[in-house]
Amino acid sequence: MAKAREGDPRSVGRLISLVEDESPLLPDLMRALAPYAGHARIVGLTGSPGVGKSTSTNALIGELRRRDQRVAVLAVDPSSPFSGGALLGDRIRMGDHVLDPGVFIRSMAARGHLGGLAWTTPQALRVLDAAGFDVVLVETVGVGQSEVEVAGHADSTIVLLAPGMGDGIQAAKAGILEIGDLYVVNKSDRDGADKVRRDLRSMLGLAERRDGAWRPPVLKTTASTATGVADVVDALEEHAAWLRESGELERRRVRRARDEVETLALTALRRRWGSVGSGDRLDELAAAVVAGETDPYTAADALVAGS
Ligand SMILES: Nc1nc2c(ncn2[C@@H]2O[C@H](COP(=O)(O)OP(=O)(O)OP(=O)(O)O)[C@@H](O)[C@H]2O)c(=O)[nH]1
Ligand SMILES: [Mg+2]
């Protein structure tokens, strides 16, 4: 615990493993970590496969380290039940920082039984926050609902795009235009980056925004040479200041904690009535409803009351 608080990578890694394994020690661990919550800025990074998320993460770490920030990276893979596969390539792309004690990199897979990454990600973030990192980058491949999910865990969300990857369609994908606090067109060394940026700006421009609302900037980078990455970190700083001043930081964090408490409470309830584990009380009550012995309202009350 004490060593993890200092950011000792092996101790931090062990605590994350407890989260990943859904250890019975978790409630005690979370209780012990609670007083140290709220320091880290959580930054989500998402985008389609191959847009350059890992390369950008590597470059962002470099820039944040130049600004004396301690950085943790949590790479969550929503598509894989194993945490081994994607890691090898990422070790190479984020390899600049493996020996830096101010940097911690960990990948997590969706092998959890209870609620997968939706359940484990917030708890892993609690560990990294309590371990004293200034910035925690959460990298997720944008497939299905995972973009929206990562935005739900973060204070600031960066959506990464790249030219030649379906362009307009990338941005028009469900949810993308709502979740980004910053948009970054990566691979700007390639043709078409300016067009992606223009299209994106005009699509974002159509959105109604209140006075004082944050207007997501659209930046350009070449992650492989770290070009433009300092501007991304500047924009993150601006967004962090806006979050604090507008009260939005508090709102986002309360909303997140609410989801966490709700998820844990529902998990506990489900476990009690048997859909996690054995001896299914819900099945019994459902059969009673079908047989006309009880009604769904009475059955639901009985389920929640544990009777
Ligand atoms: N030309 C160019 N290539 C880049 C740039 N950034 C990344 N790449 C290359 O694009 C490929 C994919 O980069 P990654 O960083 O692995 O992309 P990713 O989004 O993490 O990919 P997944 O994790 O598979 O979704 C690699 O071959 C990178 O070297 C860039 O700015 N310009
Ligand atoms: Mg990657």
TrEMBL record:
UniProt keywords, alphabetically: Chaperone, GTP-binding, Hydrolase, Kinase, Nucleotide-binding, Transferase
TM segment ranges: none
Organism of derivation: Nocardioides simplex (Arthrobacter simplex)
Highest taxon listed in the record's lineage: Bacteria
MF terms (GO), sorted A to Z: GTP binding; GTPase activity; kinase activity
Family matches, as InterPro entries: AAA+_ATPase, GTPase/Isobutyryl-CoA_mutase, GTPase_ArgK, P-loop_NTPase
Protein name as annotated: Putative periplasmic protein kinase ArgK and related GTPases of G3E family
Family in the record: Belongs to the SIMIBI class G3E GTPase family. ArgK/MeaB subfamily.
UniProt-listed PANTHER family: LAO_AO TRANSPORT SYSTEM ATPASE (PTHR43087:SF1), LYSINE/ARGININE/ORNITHINE TRANSPORT SYSTEM KINASE (PTHR43087)
